[in-house]
Amino acid sequence: MSTNQISQQPDAIIGVISDTHGLLRQDVFKAFKNVDSIVHAGDIGSIEIINQLSTIAPVNAVRGNMDGYTWAQKFPAFDVIEIKNKFFYVLHDLYTLDLNPQAANFHAVIFGHTHIADHYIKDNILYVNPGSAGPVRNNRPPTVARIRVYQNSLSVDFKEVS
User: For the chain, which domains are there?
Assistant: First the structure.
């Protein structure tokens, strides 16, 4: 797995968002322009967030610990997504991960919960937390991520949204 910028055209671009808590910032529409799909890693806050994101691209979402509403029960606690022969495991809180992503042949794990944008590679698996795109917390800027999918690699970049 690579997190470096690659100059070739990606096979797909995934918009990654988490912890909106009912607030969808207008810059998200610009940050996710031309993405092929969107992954919401929980703490959605309102079904309207998913409806609005769906106007950009198809959305896969998991519910977070703050999504205890009836509408949120239609979203799973975790999900497996395949995009261009790459497998992504999506959950809200990484500490609830109850499988070995490497043994399960995942290419990446997408999560949220901490409100801290980060990515790293462990055991050849890319881990991505887009940070929080919702209300400002702990003076951290709201962020989203984009994962570029290439035949032999993945790359990540983060965008501040306001």
Answer: 12-160 (3.60.21.10)
